[in-house]
Amino acid sequence: MTRHHARATLLVAAVAGVALALSGCAGGGDGSTDAADAEAGGSVGGGSECTTALTATLPDGTSVSLTEAGAATFGDGVSYSTFAADFAPDPDTNLLLEYPPVPDDGTIAYISTAVFNQETDHPALAPGDEIAWTRDFDVVTFAVIVQSGADQFSTSTDGAGTLSVSEVSDDRICFDLEYTDAEKAVSGTLSADVVS
């Protein structure tokens, strides 16, 4: 296992493990991390068709527009850890190790693609891929967590949705997301520079 794959396993497990914990599922991380000099990727427009514009609907029905984004990948072509926020992220945040701190009046959506309990190889993400949200193991899926101030909404009860990849490379990702569960919804487009 490469150091990048170990980081992917650890970070994706930390983010998505919370989302899957309520279902009795957990993706385990078995790697180590070390400090890396990577800077946060800000919002990136991919021309007129690929600009970050996500809407998060909180449990109380409040809708929040998320326009700042960042992403990290871990070199396996499948595991991407992304965020979209309604605030400018701290530029010193190392996206390979952590997400940006959330201010008291801020909202952020964490969206990670991953394969939980991977037993077989999976092809790298490619434009045109449609990823279905599922609790199944050994398939490419995604997890969504929303945080507003100190309140984190991480249930995946009644989760449903798709993530449609429109662009992906070593340094950029863009996808459309439609996701709902028992406490939240997130929909729209995320476009971000990728750090690795």
UniProtKB/TrEMBL annotation:
**Stretch forming the signal peptide:** 1-21
Asked whether the keyword Signal is assigned, the reply is: yes
Q: Which UniProt keywords apply?
A: Signal
Q: What is this protein called?
A: Uncharacterized protein
Q: State the organism of origin.
A: Microbacterium thalassium
